[in-house]
Fold this protein.
Amino acid sequence: MTLRGIHVPLITPFGPDGAIAADALAELANAALDAGAAGLVALGTTAEVAALGVGERTEVIDICARICRERDASLIVGVGGSDTASTLRALEEVTPQAAAALVTVPSFTRPGEAGVRAHFAHLAEHSPVPLVIYHIPYRTGQALSAAALREIGALPGIVGVKYAAGGIDAETIGLFADLPTDFSVLVGDDLYLSPLLALGAHGGILASAHLATSSFVALHQAWQSGDITRARGIGNNLARLAAALFAEPNPTVIKGVLHATGKIPTPDVRLPLLPASHASVDAALKLLADLG
């Protein structure tokens, strides 16, 4: 299985009563797919998954799974944990309709590269679905070298990585120089989508792609077809939009823009997040308008 294209990690919209706005979530999912997204991600960081109850997580997965089934799109479900046993229990509950599970590198425990490899080897051996490594060291506290990612990526049952290393450095270049067979690199840092596609990334899991989804899809297609001039133009514009959408903690600005454009009933987030400022939302709205 090779994961390609733009995947949208859906926010969790809330109604005025604080409950999940199920209809708005379904509309966001369908709109992303209508605009050309290859698939959806349920219960990613952007979904405020840490603030959702067990029943709410089930509701989100059910909505996304239904829509992906109806639309013949791929669904990736976020799974995380700081230890192997609890992560495996969470994987065992992932819907069989999921194309893969997005599994964070264990956070806080910082088990070292050997420990991370052992963690993913155990999970991959027992997981009911293929796994995508979620490499995001500025959240987990655990860095991984290109060599470690290649070693983990070569394990049976590991199909890719959401690469969100916070920049492009020598390890990034080294990873793309020698990727494992049938191993997808999906960009996780929205700002670096275009340069990483130029290096050979297969797509992205991008919170910013809630907005101007078709432009993100067009950027991916431009790099895939070798239309460098077009890719650079689109990429520069989307990088500015992504920077504006991440001016405050994700997904606060995105929710503010979605609310301002009538896509969700409230811009509400759950503590400890706070709603984005009017200035940040207005700046993002202007850039979105400039994109047309």
Notes: The radius of gyration is 18 Å. The chain has twelve helices and eight strands. The mean pLDDT is 96.
